[in-house]
Amino acid sequence: MTRFAEWLSQTYLSIVIQNHNSWVIPTIQSIHIVAIGVVVGSVFMVDLRIMGWAGMDQTLRQTTNRFGPWLTGGLYVLLATGGLMVIGEPVRELVTVSFWIKMFLVAVGTLVATVFQISLRKYDQDWEERVCSRASTKWLAILTFLIWVAIIILGRLIAYDHVWGSWSPAQKA
Ligand code: HEM
Predict the structure, then answer these.
(1) Domain annotation covers residue 163
(2) Residues 104-133: pLDDT tens digits?
(3) What distance in Å separates the CA atoms of residue 45 and residue 68, rounded to the nearest whole number?
(4) How many domains, in total, are found in the chain?
(5) Top mutation candidate among 158, 161, 163 for ligand 1, by most atoms within 8 Å of CB
(6) CA–CA separation, 119 vs 122, rounded Å?
């Protein structure tokens, strides 16, 4: 991975970003952070509805129709800005354990959100009448929210990967 990261840092786009590092990376990071608010805020609203703690004047389908597009759009922005940060600073990002655990959890969180939205569209009557009130569904809502919180913590930990000690490839690179 170190060799790939070194190769990536010599590519045209990476060099352009590195040459304007002082403002490009902070700008991309700021957009990344705003998109985190949009994504986690959307997940939070749907989870609150599943828990029965907010939005009870709307059906689960209405709540998801409202926040789902924000979640999807926010994820695209995170993918684009995150990708640009990786291209701009490949060695800093790719040679950390925090980055790879984060990517794994982003994939899990995205998969759960996608399966949930497809299932809700197909079986919305079932969801309103039975599935939503099950304890297991409520626990899943809490678990998925915690996954997004863990992603935020891991995103910040990329800069402090030494906390993983010998598990961090950055220590061996
Ligand atoms: C979708 C793919 C994503 C990619 C490729 C990506 C990539 C990155 C990269 C490269 C950094 C810079 C880390 C550093 O150099 O310090 C970063 C920061 C961060 N990311 Fe992501 N990210 C993605 C999605 C997400 C998501 C979904 C969240 C949370 C919901 C998130 C939360 C964060 C946080 C909190 C930071 C630290 C920002 C800072 O302190 O400036 N990222 N991400």
Answers:
(1) yes
(2) 999 999 999 999 999 999 999 999 989 999
(3) 10
(4) 1
(5) 158
(6) 5
Residues belonging to the chain:
173
**Residue-number span of the structural domain to which 68 is assigned:** 46-172
Q: Is residue 26 part of a domain?
A: no
Please give the model's pTM, rounded to 2 decimal places. 0.93
pLDDT tens per residue, range 73-88: 999 999 999 999 999 9
Is 22 within the bounds of a domain?
A: no
Q: Can you tell me which atom of ligand 1 is nearest the CA of 93?
A: 10
Residue type, 116: F
Is pLDDT of 169 > 90?
A: no
Question: In this structure, is residue 165 part of a structural domain?
Answer: yes
Span from the CA of 56 to the centroid of ligand 1 (angstroms): 33
Residue of the CA atom closest to atom 2 of ligand 1: 79
Which residue's CA is the nearest one to ligand 1's atom 38? 156
Structure tokens, 64: 């998801």
Q: Whose CA is nearest to atom 8 of ligand 1?
A: 82
- Rounded to the nearest angstrom, the distance between the alpha carbon of 155 and the centre of ligand 1 is 4
| Whether the Cβ atoms of residue 169 and residue 96 lie closer than 8 Å to each other | yes
